[in-house]
Amino acid sequence: MMQDPKPILEREHAFHLLYQMLLIRRFEEKCVELYSATNIRGFLHLYIGEEAVAVGAMQVLQSDDAIVATYREHGHALTRGVSAGAIMAEMYGKVQGCSRGRGGSMHIFDAATRFYGGNAIVGGGLPLAVGLALADKMQGRNRVTACFFGEGAVAEGEFHESMNLAALWNLPVLFCCENNLYAMGTALERSESETDLCLKAAAFEIPAWPVDGMDVIAVEAAAKRATNAVRSGGGPHFLEFRTYRFRAHSMYDPELYRTKEEVEAWKKRDPIPNFAASLKEQGLLKDEDLARMEEEVAAEITRAVEFAEAGTWEPVEELTRFVYSEEPKR
Amino acid sequence: MSGETQKIRTTYREAIRAALREALQRDERVFLMGEDVGRYGGCFAVSKGLLEEFGPERIRDTPLSESAFVGAGIGAAMGGVRPIVEIMTVNFSLLALDQIMNNAATILHMSGGQFNIPLVIRMTTGAGRQLAAQHSHSLDGWYAHIPGIKVLTPATLEDARGMLWTALEDPDPVLIFEHGSLYNLEEELAADAGPVGISKAAVRRPGTDVSLITYGGTLGKTLQAAQEVAAEAISAEVVDLRTLRPLDTVAIVETVAKTHRAVIVDEGWRSGSISAEIMARIMENVFYELDAPVARVCSVEVPMPYPKHLEDAAIPQVAGIVAAIQRVVRKRG
Question: How far is the alpha carbon of B93 from chain A, nearest alpha carbon, in Å?
Answer without folding.
Answer: 14
